[in-house]
From TrEMBL:
Record-given protein name: Fibronectin type III-like domain-containing protein
Lineage: superkingdom: Eukaryota
GO annotations of cellular component type: apoplast
One Pfam family matching this protein: Glyco_hydro_3_C
GO biological process: arabinan catabolic process; xylan catabolic process
Keyword line: Glycosidase, Hydrolase, Signal
One function term, GO molecular function aspect: xylan 1,4-beta-xylosidase activity
Keyword Transcription regulation: no
Signal peptide, first to last residue: 1-32
Family matches, as Gene3D superfamilies: Glycoside hydrolase family 3 C-terminal domain, Glycoside hydrolase, family 3, N-terminal domain, Immunoglobulins
Keyword Protein transport listed: no
Alphabetical list of SUPFAM superfamilies matching this protein: (Trans)glycosidases, Beta-D-glucan exohydrolase, C-terminal domain
Length: 749
């Protein structure tokens, strides 16, 4: 379920399956007719005596009452996404599978658009571009609404964690502040180490991700942990792949042990669609389907997207492979979520969101938010001699060239629905100045380029905007990339147009993943490079806003862009994050990668020059109080276990304050600026070369300034994970980075 790209995020917190209880009137208790909504006490007084319909009871008591009234066969129908109905108890059918990755989607059976009721819904930028805004407030605002790089928030665990938390809370938190109830039940997926769809004959249905304990705990797991603990997400979805020899959906350590046990999930664990069938038939993990069903339930799976548990659980019980009590536990978690959604509270029209209707969809405010989200995410990567912004009065004729210049569906990527409306890049630019449009290629594959037409248009224009890149035919679910360069003859087209153009040439890249545009970065004939991700339904307007200066670009890359040599040398099947000097393996992501990049995580320019000044810095040294007989007092230690750091961990003495003055020099435009706080820890335990520990988005008027404050938690932000997965505080020199500023301090004992 979802899409894919070449070297995608090393942690998965991509979102979201969502649930909405849209129900109405039901029949009398005992009727064979299927009710429309549950617990219609007003229309069916006999239901009033059922404990699960009694809103004055606790969730636990209501769930226990319901489970106790069901037969084994009825219980099993609640283990699958298309949950069964129980007419004798006034319970209608329920469909768990709906999608809202970046707006309501029609992928899956739960949501359908109707031309005469709700023909479309706001389609926001794909996750990867929204993440480029580094604006947690925006993440949550959209939430009030993953080949697969496009579906992820990028390569950094902290950014991904903050995106997941904010988006989930935006979806789930109710407007009345009731923390026990849910507006929507969100789902973080795909758990875990799910980084390959279909690459050179290796697919996700057969792939065993071999992951070290260290990489698991400091890269793959943190976003899921934040999603559960900080976001209080209602669900986590396990993935198709195996991790270290065990299918994730059959791993009791990953499911019951970590999600339910360590992180205390308040909700349910669901499989990716047909995952159980995959590990039985494709991975041949068990000999019989009954064993496969039992292993999933015993591992802690509550809900099966698909029919596998519905088909094989009863036989598993009869064979003694799983007890009915385990099924009770699973469906109890599912029912508790439905209780929190109000499914068993009667007529939904009388509930908090019962008056929502078509008038609340595609509102002007939501459509403007989609445009603003795209604006905030767009990244300016190159801007020679201030070529951008273009002047809307000086430009009389703009050449708009490229296979992505007049696209619609490309802008919304995968797991999208039907947008309210589209504004293509051509439409957005044409609304500002006169344009001459040449596609240049029939599609992004660009088997043959219309060089003659494109160069003629560029030669006669005051400026040229080339809109190139990829679409779902290049990077999508079950389609990993093997090439990082522009597809087909796109690069040749760009180069020849740049040579022919009489005015500045702006290269716009529309893509989910990174592109090797080293040729353009180094070219004097290409003045500017802009990455627009997959910018959603209003992407064309947002692109025009940036190019013509109505918006000062403030986006920053959420993932590194690598040269083609990276794809040629690094197999996607190697899950190791850290470099290996013995084999020449360079590692992955900006945190560990030792090779060359085209652009790196956090890169981005604006139309303003912003300076940073350190106005309050932490002390130059910090001592960890250890008891008198601690072994580190008599032996040379390179790190200390965080659990042994005493008051440093959990107390105010472990918090370091960093205050910065951030100033717009006034020569450019007003706009937003992202302040990144990175750390370089001592070189122990294969620690990251550099790691993000915080970021803040600030708005600066031209010539304006702001004070940004970071509270750095020594144990949480500055610790590292050792080879066994233990959290350690590294002893020695630590360096904090903000832009060109550096502050060094020492941690000792």
């Amino acid at each position: 379920m979802a899409a894919s790209a070449l070297f995608r995020r090393r942690n998965r917190a991509s979102l979201l399956c969502f649930l909405l209880a849209l129900l109405a009137h039901g029949p009398a208790l005992g009727s064979a007719q299927t009710p429309v909504y549950a617990c219609d006490v007003a229309g069916n007084p006999a239901l009033a005596g059922l404990g699960f319909c009694n809103g004055s009871l606790s969730w636990a008591d209501r769930v226990s009452d319901l489970v106790g009234r069901l037969t084994l066969q009825e219980k099993i129908t609640f283990l699958v996404n298309s949950a069964g109905s129980v007419a004798r108890l006034g319970i209608p059918r329920y469909e768990w599978w709906s999608e809202a990755l970046h707006g309501v989607s029609d992928v899956g059976p739960g949501t359908r658009f109707s031309s005469n009721v709700v023909p479309g819904a706001t389609s926001f930028p794909q996750v990867i571009l929204t993440a480029a805004s580094f604006n947690t407030t925006l993440f949550q605002a959209i939430g009030k609404r993953w080949g697969r790089t496009q579906e992820t928030p990028g390569e950094d665990p902290l950014l991904t964690s903050k995106y997941a938390t904010a988006y989930v809370r935006g979806l789930q938190d109710r407007d009345d502040g009731d923390k026990d109830r849910l507006k929507v039940a969100a789902c973080c997926k795909h758990y875990t180490a799910y980084d390959l769809d279909n690459w050179k004959g290796v697919d996700r249905y057969h792939f065993n991700a071999v992951v070290t304990k260290q990489d698991m705990d400091d890269t793959f797991q943190p976003p899921f942990k934040s999603c559960v603990i900080d976001g209080n997400v209602a669900s986590v979805m396990c993935s198709y792949n195996q991790v270290n020899g065990t299918p994730t959906c059959a791993d009791p350590n990953l499911l019951a042990g970590v999600i339910r046990g360590e992180w205390k999930l308040n909700g349910y664990i669901v499989s990716d669609c047909d995952s159980l069938d995959v590990y039985f038939k494709s991975q041949k993990y068990t000999k019989t389907p009954e064993e496969a069903a039992a292993k999933a339930i015993l591992a802690g799976l509550d809900l099966n997207c698909g029919s596998f548990l519905g088909d094989h659980t009863e036989a598993a019980v009869k064979a003694g492979l799983v007890d009915e009590s385990a099924i009770n536990k699973a469906i109890s978690n599912n029912f508790a979520t439905l209780m929190r959604l109000g499914f068993f509270d009667g007529d939904p029209r009388s509930q908090l969101y019962g008056k929502l209707g078509p008038k609340d969809v595609c509102t002007p405010e939501n459509q403007e938010l989609a445009r603003e989200a795209a604006r905030q995410g767009i990244v300016l990567l190159k801007n020679n001699a201030g070529a951008l912004p273009l002047s809307p009065t000086a430009i009389k004729n703009l050449a708009v060239i490229g296979p992505n210049a007049n696209v619609t569906k490309t802008m919304i990527g995968n797991y999208a629905g039907v947008p309210c409306k589209y504004t293509t890049p051509l439409q957005g630019l044409s609304a500002v100045v006169g344009t001459t449009y040449v596609a240049g290629c029939q599609n992004v594959g660009c088997g043959t380029a219309d060089v003659e037409g494109a160069t003629k248009a560029a030669a006669g224009a005051d400026a040229t905007v080339l809109i190139m890149g990829t679409d779902l035919s290049i990077e999508a679910e079950s389609l990993d990339r093997t090439e990082l360069t522009l597809p087909g003859q796109q690069q040749q087209l760009v180069a020849q147009v740049a040579s022919a153009s009489k005015g500045p040439v702006i290269l716009v890249i529309m893509s989910g993943g990174g592109i090797d545009v080293g040729f353009a970065k180094d070219s004097d004939k290409i003045a500017s490079i802009v990455w627009v991700g997959l910018p959603g339904e209003a992407g064309g307007g947002a692109i025009a806003d940036v190019i013509f200066g109505a918006h000062n670009p403030g986006g920053r890359l959420p993932m590194s862009w690598y040269p083609q040599s990276y794809a040629d040398k690094i197999p996607m099947t190697n899950m190791n994050m850290r470099p290996d000097n013995g084999t020449g393996y360079p590692g992955r992501t900006y945190r560990f990668y030792t090779g060359e990049t085209v652009y790196t995580f956090g890169d981005g320019l604006s139309y303003s020059k912003v300076s940073h000044e350190l106005i309050q810095s932490p002390a130059k040294s910090l001592s960890i109080p250890l008891h008198a007989d601690h072994y580190c007092r008599s032996s040379e230690c390179r790190s200390v276990d965080a659990a042994e750091a005493g008051e440093i961990c959990g107390g105010s003495s472990g918090i370091m304050e960093l205050h910065l003055k951030v100033q717009n020099d006034g020569e450019g435009m007003k706009g937003s600026h992202t302040v990144f706080l990175f750390t370089t820890p001592p070189a122990v335990h294969g620690s990251p070369r550099k790691q993000l520990v915080g970021f803040e988005k600030v708005w600066l008027e031209a010539g304006g300034e702001a004070v940004v404050k970071f509270n750095v938690d020594v144990c949480k932000d500055l610790s590292v994970v050792d080879e066994l997965g233990n959290r350690k505080i590294a002893l020695g020199e630590h360096v904090l980075h903000v832009g060109d500023l550096k502050h060094s301090f020492t941690i000792g004992i």
